[in-house]
Amino acid sequence: MKYFMKVLLAESYKQHRNYFNNRLIYVSLFVWPMFSFLAAYYSYRAFDFGGNIISYISTENILVFILLGYMAMSFFRSVVQSAWNFSRERQSGTLEYIYLSPANRLAVLLGNALSSVFESAVVMFIFGMLIILFNRSALNVNIVGLILVLAIFMVMALLWGVFLNACFLYSRDTDFLFTILEEPMEIFAGVKVPVVIFPGWARIISCIFPLTYVLEALRQVSLNAASISSIKTTILISLVIIMVLLGATLITIQIVEKHMRKTGNVVLF
Amino acid sequence: MIEVHNLKKTYDVKRRQNFFHSTREKVEAVKDISMKIEAGQIVGLLGINGAGKTTTIKMLTTLIEPTSGSYMFDGMDALMNPHQVKKQINMIAGGERMIYWRLTAYENLWYYGQLYGIENNELRRRIDKLLKLVGLEDKANLPVETFSKGMKQRLQIARGMINNPKYIFLDEPTIGLDAVVTQELHEEIKNLAKEQGKGILLTSHYLSEVEELCDYIYMVNNGELVVEGTKKELTDFVFTKKYYAFSVQGMDEAVVAKLRNHLLILDGDSSVELEGRTANISSRLELSSILAEFAVREGLVINELHKLEPSLEQAVIKLSKNIEREEKGIA
Question: In chain B, what residues touch A258 (CB-CB under 8 Å)?
């Protein structure tokens, strides 16, 4: 376990030093999601929420509703980007040396995702918390539920990052995953528009993204003071997703290394 | 000791025919290679481009799995225990990649040290020692991107020794380095093998480097072992004749003709060519005493008589040409 933690922390530190040298990167990580958030918010302002099909959304709390979506999205987006960044290690030749070492592969990938989550999402998180504090009247929070959902959310975001990392390592031609997962996740996971108002086909796509479930739970406990029992189905699905992601990640790590050793593609770029 | 037998690697390569169709074909990168690396020994792996050197190294470092063959690592089956092998090996490749340019030299070594689970105090000591060894102790806290090519390569060497490996694989380690740094590195490689007892496998395009460093050499071509042995065994294998430079006072065509006739009686394959005042002689026989006797008998005063030892470079070039001729079907 000590060795696992050493590798995890070393990888986190390396990623931080390697990709976050310039403070301006924090500005770009913050400014872009913030503009997207504002665009979404002001698009909603044109509509009247009286008699809305989602009972807990109102004109007062729509800002927090969307903001929660963007805060959650920034966590998930950061791990997708970190996975994409990690695949560049193949080009720089450093991936070969990571695989030459006996280091636990899960620790390396987890360290990479962990670094990215905290680095990328921290500014958006601080911004979001400040806005929410100024709009406290819009909140209707179940504290215990929120703590539980946040814990599930963090674990899920990290595992999503590790799983994607492993997928990106399978081949040098997996960059298309970045395109597939980046924008569609924002649209179909209900970041801007609630999933319940989607047509059937779009809801099927929503099911693919883990963010969909955990975001719904987060909004329910923050805006509707939902009890744990009332969101138990969402929590249960989230836990199942976590187990599936963990299993899929462990299997993918094995498959990736076996594939690399068979094809020699660890040195191809 | 590292011992591999009949190592083979076949890649399944996809060739795209058009947008919709592709075919798969087998490419044999390594057909049959057997070799040994003992502790304290520097072994050279030579071959022209595409010979299978890199694939062989990748198999020995467990990065690539052989299609067939056996690989024993200090008595342990390395193919069954790649994780155990990884702890005791490392690789140093030439070039400027494979290190993190935005990190400092110290941070690079610290990161790789952590990947090997080295205890923190021990890692600090080791990093200080290695940075001193490669002459980068004053640059420890500078980002690698500010380093020259030679400094980056020296950092690579320190990185390759961070886990104190028992066996080190050097893949073109001095490529692009200046003569002084190369010589320092040569001394260090010798020290690693002779003083610290590490087994080293070296591939290099600089044949003088292989000649200077290697105790034993394997030459591969087209994925197969062509010849193996010490430098002398290799040159003897390639050059079946012996070469002499012979010069006497008053050396002219008449003397050369007399010498030629004399040698042809002893060895029908011998040849004598006059170049300036020196006769260049080749023969299957040891000629030193024969040439001395010839000079005494003819009343000639010897100016020069020495046996020419072909270099490894000459041997490899000749061997490569022979192989090329064979492949083209030229008799």
Answer: 65
- Start-to-end CA span in chain B (Å): 41
On whether any CB of chain B is under 8 Å from the CB of A164, the answer is: no
For residues A94 and A29, give the distance between their C-alpha atoms in angstroms, rounded to a whole number: 26
Which DSSP helix (H) or strand (E) runs through A78?
A: helix A62-86
Least confident range of A58-67, B29-38, B225-234, B262-271: A58-67
Q: Closest Cα to residue A181, out of A151, A205, A200?
A: A205
Cα A264–chain centre separation:
31
A157, amino acid identity = A
Q: Which residues of B touch A97 (CB under 8 A)?
A: 91, 98, 112, 115, 159
- Mapped onto helix, strand or coil, the DSSP state of residue A90 is helix
Q: Cβ–Cβ of A102/B87 closer than 8 Å?
A: yes
Gap between the Cα atoms of A80 and A179, Å rounded: 10
Which CATH class name applies to B240-308? Answer: alpha beta
Give the tens place of pLDDT for each residue, A84-112. Answer: 777 778 878 888 899 999 999 999 999 98
CATH of B2-231, one of 3.90.110.10, 3.40.50.300, 3.20.20.70, 3.40.30.10: 3.40.50.300
Nearest to A103 among B63, B64, B115 (CB): B115
Nearest CA in chain A to B68: A262
Q: 3-state DSSP helix/strand/coil percent for chain B, to nearest 5?
A: 40, 30, 30
What is the extent of the structural domain holding A32? 2-267
Label residue A139 exposed, middle or buried (CB < 10 Å: 0-12, 13-18, 19+). Answer: middle
Q: What DSSP string describes A142-159? A: -HHHHHHHHHHHHHHHHH
Does the beta-carbon distance from B98 to A94 stay under 8 Å?
Answer: yes
Give me the residue from B61, B98, B117 closest to A3, CB to CB: B117
Nearest to B64 among A11, A101, A264 (CB): A264
A137 versus B120: the higher-pLDDT residue is: B120
User: How many structural domains compose chain A?
Assistant: 1
Give the pLDDT confidence of B131-190 residue by residue, as tens digits: 998 889 999 999 999 998 888 888 998 999 999 999 999 988 887 777 887 888 888 889
- Domain regions of chain B by residue span: 2-231, 240-308
Per-residue pLDDT, B8: 93
What tens digit of pLDDT does each residue of B204-260 get?
A: 888 888 888 999 999 888 888 888 898 888 888 888 888 899 998 888 888 889 999
The pair of structure tokens assigned to B108 is 């690079």
